[in-house]
Amino acid sequence: MGMNGIDRGGSWEAGRRGSERPDYGSRRTDSLRGICFCLLYDLCCWLAAVARPVPEDVEEYTLSTVRDIPDPRQRLSRYVNPALLQVWEEALAPFFEIGATLEPELGEAGSFQERGRESDGHVRCELRFSNRSAVIDRHRRRHPLPQDDWVLTVWLSPELGGYVENATLRRASADL
């Protein structure tokens, strides 16, 4: 599938320290990181039209209750706000209608930051990653996307392990 960096364990674990493991803050951070990783993984699979259960060697995929579901869109429906998923489906309809797919190639290193609670209680997190992906058209021609770092910002419901309420994707260079 070409999802470099997503199916390798070590580099996405950056920022974890063995001494932090036992405390609640670390478990909470691990849980938030896991949900954000699962979201990125399932979005990539959906755009790549890859329908298979999440392989066991993808250790970062922490949502064990949906791991065996082959359809990434169905996995997303279990933990993403239905209204948000509907907006994504409508926005992506032209992409799928022309027979395009994504050939995901994400960098081996990624960083995660919890940005805290918003005034409405939602938890805001950011997952930063490099991207060397390409779009494959219906004629199987490869169209490389610009190489850049990207930031996936995710707003999670106030309950730990809750829904992905909203998410945005932007080039990291937009932060400059």
CATH topology: Nuclear Transport Factor 2, Chain: A
Shape field: globular
**Biggest sheet: strands side by side, in what order?**
2-3-6-7
Low-confidence stretches: 1-23
What proportion of the residues form beta strands (DSSP E)?
25-35%
Overall number of strands: 7
- Give the SSE string: HHHEEEEEEE
The biggest beta sheet reads: 4 strands, antiparallel
Structural commentary:
The protein is 27% helix and 27% strand. It has 176 residues and is α+β, with helices and mostly antiparallel strands. It has a 4-stranded antiparallel β-sheet with strand order 2-3-6-7, with helices on one face. Strands 1-4-5 form a 3-stranded antiparallel β-sheet. The N terminus is likely disordered.
List keywords for this structure.
single chain; 176 residues; alpha+beta; Nuclear Transport Factor 2, Chain: A; four-stranded antiparallel β-sheet; 7 strands
Please sum up the structure shown.
This protein has 176 residues and is of the alpha+beta class. It is globular. It contains three helices and seven strands.
Describe the SSE topology.
Layout: H1 24-48, H2 72-77, H3 82-97, E1 101-103, E2 106-117, E3 123-131, E4 134-136, E5 142-144, E6 148-156, E7 164-171
Antiparallel strand pairs: 1-4, 2-3, 3-6, 4-5, 6-7
